[in-house]
User: Fold SpoIIE family protein phosphatase from Micromonospora globbae.
Amino acid sequence: MVDAPGPVSRTLRAAPPDQLAEAADRAIRSALGATRTDVFIADYRINGLWPVLDPEPPSAGFLACEGVAQRCFSSQQPVHDAAGDGRCRLYLPLSVWGERLGVLMIELPGVPDRALEERALDIAGDLAVALRAADRETDRYRRVRRRERLSMAAEMQWELLPGRSVTQRAFHLAGQLEPAYTVGGDHFDWSVDGDRLTVTVLNGDGTGLAASLLTAVAVNAMRNARRSGGGLVEQAELASDTLYYQHRGRRYVATLLLELDVRTGRVRAVDAGSPHVLRLRGGAVEQITLDQQLPLGMFAEARYDLQEFTLVPGDRVFVVSDGVWAANPEGKEPYGERVMARAMRSTRLQPAAEAVGTVLRELRAYHADTDLRDDAVVVCLDWHGVDGRDAG
Assistant:
């Protein structure tokens, strides 16, 4: 027998997509006896959490970022906070399959018992699914997410992403684009299909809208091959042929294609003049060296070969574009030579979604917090093994 959906779930399904926060507020007050609720959405840089119901006060996002909401967002666990007069504010992660959207705050007359907290967690899960679906129908939550205007190229890149993180028992995966509001050609894509996880990372050619258009063609060509049942070689070759016959070798895209068998840790790879792959095992960072083949679109009918490497439970793999690896502001040594490895080692106790932010924050600090000169993409993959537990 399947349990019937609860009143909050029914309310969310019936609500207009741009009114989910208001509908959730009314339903949660009724179902849980709450005195107040709020929904906080993470911005594109994941620098802060910003309120949906009352977006005007300039301090609201800052307070959420610095307070218990940020702890909830980072830990992905419920957090309690005293609200005075015996009231309790319960902060709950809004996440869908590991994609971290934000935080739901529920203010209650007293400290909730375990049963009430479980109900609240279920409500947060329902709301997260609804918010993710609503993004296709309304711009409201995207407006909350952006703290400045996106360039046209960045608008296209963010629309093209599959998400920013995904979690299953055997693996965690996360990625981030920078500069978030003006990124041009760097990109990442992924797909989960049974025991196969496919990940592609693109080091875009050029800047601005032209770079974004080139990347969009490459990504959609690889998706077309993948969704038609093609493996990594077919994906690379279709994308390369498509780009070449559009640009006759004048424009091309360095790309890494990976396919992880989530049961065994075996990784197949096509290195098409690719971004850089580094593995964190224990406390040691080492570069995974692959034989580089031609970038996608450089020559007509280019053909590609598979390579393989193997992960052990607990391995963390970073894939970074040249904007990360080769960054050398003011004549400093390239970020990828030593500084990046230190940043990666410092992420050992962080989840993948936090680790990508750490590496990029260190990159911005390396640039003395000035604007990044080049697009930068960081993807982090943790493989936990078939039983879902790290080796150590």
Residues 149-383 form a domain with the Phosphatase 2c; domain 1 fold (CATH 3.60.40.10).
